[in-house]
Amino acid sequence: MKAIHVPSTVGIGTTDLGGLTLGDFSKGQRSETPHRVEWGTTSSYLVGENVAQFSRPLESLDFHRFSDGLGMRALTYATLGLLLGGGTHKLSMMLGLPVEVLENEELAQKIKRELRHWLEGEHNFAVNGIPTCLNVIRTAIMPQPAGTFFARGMNDEGKWIQTKDDFDSTVAICDVGFNTLDVFTLQGGKILRRFTGGDTAGMRRAVEFLLRALETQYQVQYSLQEADAFIRKGNPRLSHISGKIDLTELIQDAKKAAGAGINTFLHEHWGNGRQFDHILFTGGGAVALKDNLLELYPLGYLMPDPVMANALGLARYGKRVFDTEIVIGLDPGFGGFKAVKL
Predict the structure, then answer these.
(1) Which of 63, 65, 276, 314 is deepest in the core (most CB within 10 A)?
(2) What is the architecture, at CATH level 2, of domain 2-16+30-204+255-341?
(3) Rounded distance, CA 50 to CA 223, Å?
(4) CA-to-CA distance for 238 and 260, rounded, in angstroms?
(5) Domain residue ranges in the chain
């Protein structure tokens, strides 16, 4: 198994500084540069960490981004190129989409058609100057939190490893992403519609709270991705003309704001949750809001690697249904593209 997580930040530009240099003065102090993605006659796209240091990030929170947008293509190519390396690869892919997308039949069918149209077939691109050729044989689409269900219940060969009683139990999954909040409930492998739903909530609410506070209190503006990075940092400090500012208190307030909206949504769909045998928390937002979620549902369980759980489970289920040697589970989140190769 091989896994990768690429922050969903995209910009147009280059990391080449030309003749700009400080000699060896800043030796050892350089931050990680974004990945460069190129294909056809397109401009060079920058993807991943620190894009904002080289280009203004392209920000799209529209669900139509999952179809053939240039940002989606750049992120997909970067993720698969880094995961597989250069050369030629033949593979099948199991993709996860938010519950809110798949609840809307018309939107779901449109995005599924468009995804398959551009994904299936041959792709030639380069990541950081290394050429890659992909032949995508088959694709399939599942709800993102279904990946967590399969990650918990299957092994890397796609075989169910839990007991029959466990399979028949009621499993409720709360998936907190950057721009999405999904609740997904199954019993005996069947979806329980009453306890399943999605919303455009997640950590985006915390990010927007922080952005408003930074502009109001310090008259500075940041992108969504930059504000999200502040929240993810262990010791967040803002560089400001008045000096270094500790953002810890503001970020705690931002998390509380996001947590309040999530609590309301969960109460509406799950009540006290005592009707479930298992409650699983997954997604990057579940890490940031762990205390809030476990206070609401004390018997809930945070997945061992909540950021990668969906991608892992999608790959495991892909092993069950595809017959290609390489199977990729792809969780194309608004906060990060997560992929697992089996």
Answers:
(1) 314
(2) 2-Layer Sandwich (3.30)
(3) 12
(4) 25
(5) 2-16+30-204+255-341
